[in-house]
Amino acid sequence: MPNVSLRPATADDAAEVAALYRRVFADVPASYPGLADAQDPGRFSLLLQTGHAFVVAETGGRIVAAVRHQDDEGIATFDLIASELPRAGRELARRVDHLAQDRGIRLVRTRVPEASRLPDVFARWGYLPIARHKSDDGSTDLVLEKRVPLLTVRDQRRSDADAIGSIAKIDPWTFTQGVRPGWFVLADGDRVAGVISVSDGKGGMAAIMAPVILPAYEGRGLELWMLERAAGYAETNGYHSATVPATPALAIHDRALEDRRWFRDGDAYVRRFRDLDPVDSD
Predict the structure, then answer these.
(1) Contact 115, 124 (CB under 8 A)
(2) Distance spanning both ends of the chain, measured CA to CA
(3) Listed residue (180, 178, 185) closest to 152, CA to CA
(4) Spatial CA neighbour of 226 closest among 100, 95, 102
(5) What pTM value is reported for the model?
(6) Is the four-CA dihedral 116, 121, 123, 128 of positive or negative sign?
(7) Region for residue 169 given its phi and psi (left: phi exceeds 0; alpha: psi -120 to 50; beta: otherwise)
(8) How far is Cα 232 from Cα 114, in angstroms, rounded to an integer?
(9) Could you tell me which residues are beta bridge partners of residue 70?
(10) Cβ contacts of residue 128 below 8 Å, gap of 6+?
């Protein structure tokens, strides 16, 4: 499959996405939920303005797939998945899984016609039927559900030693001896996907190691989540400030970091937890 890039849809995509839905769903009745709006550029733009979120896949400057997704009472759902490129639909479904994980949501659901090949396709992707709905026209839809692993930033465990060594490029031996205070891992279920640590930078300043994550988890802003956990540890352990190197992976989140009270200072970001008093400044 050619390389595809995924991104949120914008109003500028309305005409191209609507045309995609008209082609892919040419044989689907216009009464299919949401389809008529998705197939019309003006109504698609209105969907985006009224809280509906779409992700598109594009290659060579052309949109080849799209999906609508949302959260409903702690459950992520998606529909209107359309693809003109093999495996692009799978990438969109995986992105919905990731978006759910990033918001701490464990369940992802979709609804597909029972009398189609889609239930088998989604079964290969980990989605299982949990309910059946019969429409007025006599057709039957299946509600499919997938439980995604819990994505969290937690304290380092002894069993994480080898993964920490591999990701952070350090000797894992010391981590096999027990928990090291100030070390945290990004965990995708049982898999360690990233590492961050806090050490004493002297003078009341906490030195936070730049977060390191596996390539498959890049581009999701998870570094910010890890940095917040490290900053929380630093603050609760009495540091008045914290600093972290301004790596390229963090620099692309400059605005989000500023919103979280991290401010650029040369080649680092600094966050102040409390004002310095005379004792601190000596």
Answers:
(1) no
(2) 61
(3) 185
(4) 102
(5) 0.68
(6) negative
(7) left
(8) 48
(9) 77
(10) 144, 145, 146
For residue 178, CA distances in Å to 159, 160, 223 come to 9, 10, 25
Q: Is 81 left (phi over 0), alpha (psi -120 to 50) or beta?
A: beta
| Predicted confidence pLDDT, tens digits, the chain (282 residues) | 568 899 999 999 999 999 999 999 998 877 778 899 999 999 999 999 998 999 999 999 999 999 999 998 889 999 999 999 988 999 999 999 999 988 888 899 999 888 888 899 999 999 999 999 887 777 888 999 999 888 899 999 999 999 999 999 999 999 998 889 999 999 998 899 999 999 999 999 999 999 999 998 988 889 999 999 999 999 999 999 999 999 999 999 999 999 999 999 999 999 999 765 555 544
Largest CA distance in the chain: 79
Q: Using the structure block, give the residue that is written with the tokens 């680092």.
A: 268
Look at the alpha carbons of 119, 122, 124, 129 in this order and tell me if their dihedral is positive or negative.
Answer: negative
On whether the CB atoms of residues 160 and 183 are closer than 8 A, the answer is no
